Amino acid sequence: MTTPEPPGPPSAAEPLLDVEDLAVRRADGHELLRGVSFALGPGERLGLIGESGSGKSLTALAVMGLLPAGMTAHGSVTLGGTQVVGAQDRKLDRVRGRAAGVVFQEPLTALDPLMRAGRQIAGPIRRRRGLRGKPLRAAVLDALSEVRLPERVARAYPHEISGGQRQRVAIAMALASEPEVLIADEPTTALDVTVQAEVLALLDGLVAGRGMALLFISHDLAVVAGVADRVVVLKDGSMVESGRTRDIVREPRHPYTRSLVDSAWALEGELDRLAP
Ligand SMILES: Nc1ncnc2c1ncn2[C@@H]1O[C@H](COP(=O)(O)OP(=O)(O)OP(=O)(O)O)[C@@H](O)[C@H]1O
Hints:
Elements: E1 17-25, E2 31-40, E3 45-49, H1 56-64, E4 72-79, E5 82-83, H2 89-95, E6 100-103, H3 117-129, H4 133-146, H5 163-176, E7 181-185, H6 193-210, E8 213-218, H7 221-227, E9 230-235, E10 238-244, H8 245-250, H9 255-274
Parallel strand pairs: 3-8, 3-9, 6-7, 7-8
Antiparallel strand pairs: 1-2, 1-4, 4-5, 9-10
Helix pairs in contact: 3-4, 3-5, 5-6
The chain binds adenosine-5'-triphosphate.
Adenosine-5'-triphosphate binds at residues 32, 50, 52-58, 68, 219.
InterPro entries: AAA+_ATPase, ABC_Ni/Peptide_Import, ABC_transporter-like_ATP-bd, ABC_transporter-like_CS, Oligopep_ABC_C, P-loop_NTPase
Subcellular location: Cell membrane
Organism: Nonomuraea cypriaca
């Protein structure tokens, strides 16, 4: 197996997120993730790709200090200047949201089923910008319009709106804290195929418009290639390859990456064949 070079930021600017030799262990000592290193500078877009169980979600959770109980992170994760590995929750509360926001695969993970969407978006806006009353209500409506949702969604409970609308609400919540880094963990995988492209385009536009850095996690190379400039390929909890998306798609070095590229091309060919 080749030892991949961690893709560093091209500029000398301090990275917003710096992951060095990250490992995640279960309580029994079993290592689920090892040797993961990458850095993300302002406005950069990095894709994390690998099949189910390769450790993508654990990487995202370790970055946010949100690993399930019993799991521990090792190595170093610096997010917004704070060392996340080993930090107390109280300290991380100040970093989460502001330094990095997360959009998960399943929007219901982020949403409270018993609270109207508007109130859920209002929470982080109030905390971040100190707004109250009328200005807060206006900011919530702005946030809804930014994710292309009608005003009436503010009064809806999560179960009263569609999966795509719920994910838009979750995106609005993540953006409400004005994070420098957005972590999107399979943000469109759970959605109806007809809305996947719409939500992806929305996310892409919002990240570009706000100049945010993006850590985009997906099992789908074609999707990652559309949004990320660099990729890290994970397999069985290890990094097998990393580099510029263009280079990796054109000339994959690791056999596993090659198989991902081949199957993406095969699907493309299949679609071409079926096209009228
Ligand atoms: N809460 C947990 N308890 C025990 N093992 C876990 C837990 N969460 C994940 N794992 C294990 O850690 C490994 C990496 O899982 P992870 O969820 O990060 O993979 P993934 O690449 O995100 O996959 P998927 O695309 O299916 O979400 C897998 O072997 C998984 O079984």
